[in-house]
């Protein structure tokens, strides 16, 4: 594929994951290799421009420059020339006044002082978070502020971020002022310095993620004839504007699709009874590939299905089903004022039983053997942590403890088939024990009373309640809930026969979503790989520059 053909496919590639960013990268890489515009033999060659800058005295002498070696650098047209950055510009590194001296700092009435956080990439610095005082100017900087419209570039930690000053200002030592010896080169350098700064970290040039003054001075820069620089700038701006419009159009399409998807999900969740659910689901199924185009779209649909299932709206009720046998003894130990329930419980089918979670089985939690005691760890008993929960069948534990570690801690054995629930941090993350195991104290487990509820249904009920459980979280950065809160949660439980029908229907729909999610993931990966390889391959191989004006910009 030629550069022209690829650029003609901009709209298609823009829809790939990360496509716009890849295409912006492509435009810049083609520009610095002379592949974006055609060369004009009548243009004064870059060597004359470079010699003129040197002879003018506009750029101060630099003693640390190394001979330029084109080996390993991209191939450029014959009329261009590779130079070191300091051959064509002056660089002034900023300073930071002592933060301990309050007299050096001022409020918004002071002199703007730029840090990297104040710079919008390819934008203008219109304001700064901090300002310095005239005293700092006199004692620290000892010069006038950097003038308006000066080009700035970061060269520490964040390398190659560029912006222009919209006001007179000073800046810190992680930023350098770039002052071209030929003023007309400013526009070219503003757009393409980030690409050259990245080249400055290659083995062919300079190593390291933080450029010092020497490495900064030696960044390799491909200099085109001045007239061609003007054409490159115009072409880059034209294509970047097109990509901006393509990005805005994609965002608008995505927003519209998200609204339609959310409306379809809302209709599904609000459906009353099996027939309405069937109708709402049919609407989604008929437009599945239009509404759900990203793997990230699938989890909300999974949750909607589970919420419908556990609220009695996914399968029809059978009046001949026998009600579940709920042992209410556990409820007598609960505090009435601690009981809580989601709003949907009151609207659940009348033949469903209402009861606290405490009545659905035997609840417990785990413990942690003393860390550092080698007699407690590396045994043969699986010891679960929240990271081991997978919202499915748990058959592996990263850590194992010994029998002694089990006996000397509050950890207890959990039988196969118990339902697991995270109480700390990732509240609501869950699973079904596929192995005999134990757990730490961050995981609650329930051995279901099979007269009342099956493990497979209880697991799906807990997953459907994740939002409600999260809302009960307490604490700071790491929220948590307690077994007490879980046991006091009142839910509605269908007859065992209906539980089996619900689980079967849920599994059928989840299998469909598994296939859809897998296909979307494959498609996304394919598109992303194509966009990446297409963008990366072109600059590495010789390509014909696309004809100027060949790209339609609407």
Q: Can you walk through the features of this model?
A:
Helix content is 38%, strand content 16%. Among the domains are: 44-224, DNA methylase specificity domains (Adenine-n6-DNA-methyltransferase TaqI, Chain A, domain 2), CATH 3.90.220; 328-493, Adenine-n6-DNA-methyltransferase TaqI, Chain A, domain 2 (Alpha-Beta Complex), CATH 3.90.220. The strands form 6 sheets. Strands 2-10-7-8-5 form a 5-stranded mixed beta sheet. It is α+β, with helices and mostly antiparallel strands. The protein has helices spanning 3-8, 10-14, 19-31, 46-56, 134-141, 186-199, 213-217, 226-270, 273-286, 288-291, 298-309, 403-407, 455-464, 466-471, 483-487, 496-540, and strands at 81-84, 89-93, 105-106, 111-114, 123-125, 130-132, 151-156, 158-165, 170-171, 175-180, 220-223, 353-356, 361-365, 377-384, 393-394, 399-401, 419-422, 430-433, 438-439, 443-448, 490-493. The chain is elongated.
Q: Strand order within the widest sheet?
A: 2-10-7-8-5
Radius of gyration, CA atoms, in whole angstroms: 33 Å
Helical content, roughly? 25-40%
The tally of strands reads 21
Residue-averaged pLDDT: 88
Poorly predicted ranges (pLDDT <50, ≥5 residues)? Answer: 202-208, 539-554
In CATH, the topology of the domain at 44-224 is named: Adenine-n6-DNA-methyltransferase TaqI, Chain A, domain 2
CATH architecture of the domain at 44-224: Alpha-Beta Complex
In CATH, what is the class of the domain at 44-224? Answer: Alpha Beta
User: What spatial form do the alpha-carbon principal axes imply?
Assistant: elongated
CATH superfamily heading of the domain at 44-224: DNA methylase specificity domains
Structural class: alpha+beta
The percent range for strand residues is 15-25%
Euclidean distance between termini CA atoms: 24 Å
Number of helices: 16
